[in-house]
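User: Is it possible to get a 3D structure for a protein together with its bound compound? The compound here is Fe4 H S5. I've pasted both below.
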Amino acid sequence: MSYIRCHKCDQHAAMRMKHHRLNLCADHYIEYIQKQTLRSIKKYRMFAHSERVLVAVSGGKDSLALWDVLLTLGYKADGFYIDLGIDEGLGYSSKSRMTAEQFAQSKDAQLTVVDFAGAYGLTIGELAKRTRRGTDKPCSVCGIAKRHTMNAITQKGGYDVIATGHNLDDEAAVLFSNTLRWDTDMMMRQSPVLEARHGMPRKVKPFFRFYERETAAYALLRGIDYIQDECPFAEGSRTIELKHLLNQLEDQSAGAKLNFYMNFLKAQEQDFFNRDKDEATRANLNRCLQCGQPTTAEGLCGFCRLLAQSQR
Ligand code: Q46
Ligand code: ZN
Ligand code: ZN
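Assistant: Yes, that's possible. Here is the predicted structure of the complex:
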């Protein structure tokens, strides 16, 4: 019987990557993902083995796979999970929290869990309703709250860097959205590494070169138990629409997404965008009077304003 063979050994190929013209068996695929992650970390100087990394964990495949790879590569990686209290429908937050906790336990790794409602006295949904920012979806409030909480935990725990599981599909969709609007300010800031500045920690995305199906395959082949459901509010989002369009392009031309994003990074390196202007904007950041985090606003940062509004 003929079957597709691994390019490195004679075993049955568990994963086919058309864009790289590479087929690998389970063991070689796992090794490939780990080595490529290490390569990205080193090439983009994301962090060193001596530094403490905080992995933002959602309970999904990308963040758990990333945590698994970092631990396997010997990095000092702890996890961080925010329980947003999104329990509409199938109990998304409860399920994802349990999944993250079980993974941490199985690896004997440290996971910090922040119960948003416990910390701030209301769930994300309630915060959105009270501040009238998103009556049907709390996403804009959720983004602000997650960023704020993540920065706070990084500072409190003395971490050097935050690592998130964003993959190529995520990054290409953001780039596509920014390009459709020609939002050059946002495009200038999109990068696998955002350096620490003005009190904000360094943020890195070690999986930025992997397709979503590649991180999913890694999680499956490593036997990682992850939550497959998306947050119920993600349904019908603009990002998902853009991902579908990019998938259509990819179907017609293998590697389209990778080229789109990697050539963008190349253009950035060649100073396609004016960095001086971005530096000037960032140099003028203020400190929030309530929490001390950097903000473009005068007085309170976006998050502290939300909290203040919710208490009125
Ligand atoms: S922003 Fe919106 Fe996500 Fe928050 S409410 Fe859910 S879908 S989790 S990435
Ligand atoms: Zn092999
Ligand atoms: Zn603040």
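Residues 288, 290-291, 293, 300-301, 303-304 surround zinc ion (ligand 3) (CB under 6 Å). The CA atoms of residues 96 and 283 lie 38 Å apart.
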